[in-house]
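Query form — protein M15 family metallopeptidase

QUESTION: What is the three-dimensional structure of this chain?
INPUT:
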Amino acid sequence: MAVAICGLLPQCTGGPSAPSLTLVPVPTSSTETRPEPATVAAVTAAELGATWHPDCPVTPKQLRRVTLTHLGFDDRPHRGELIVHQELVSQVIAIFERLYQQEFPIEKMRSVDHYPGGEDELSMEDNNTSAYNCRRIPGSGSWALHAYGRAIDINPLLNPMVDGDDFEPKNAKVYLDRRRIEPGLLHAGDPAVRVFTDAGWKWGGNWKSPVDYQHFERR
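ANSWER: The structure tokens for M15 family metallopeptidase are given below.
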């Protein structure tokens, strides 16, 4: 383990002696060890709350709750959960293990039923990373891939959806400037983006209109 060094203190430079120092171990990164293993569980309609209703395109039996370790904005490991289609469970676990090892921070990660009415806008405004939500594409009658558990939105406040002069979430105006480089933002070519695309997922940041920087999907 690395230790703190004395730098230019007198005892290092031949000057007058000073009280002896106790060498203190330098804390290692939280990602130098493997994260706590992911867990997978079935979900029920009651657990999905307002994010599911009987006319949704998949049933609760086709979905799984995956509990994962992610690095928080405080540089500490946290447990969060995503609800995804059962066919994608192994991919999602592998992707988020790689994000953790890359030290890519995620502020929070919980299912959208924690927000009143399962409202996607509220989840995005809270910078909540999420997956399943039985909803349609805004302005369209088609189901979003989130309604199939086949899409994940990462740090959505920092990575908004932009459609001309419109954007979501409503409090994301400052993050329309994609020259920003603070942790948690996604840019073309970033290692975090490649973790998804190398696994066959598509990134909304590559789209023409709308451009959806938060969005990853796997059909």
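ADDITIONAL NOTE: The helical segments are 10-13, 45-48, 89-101, 120-125, 191-197.
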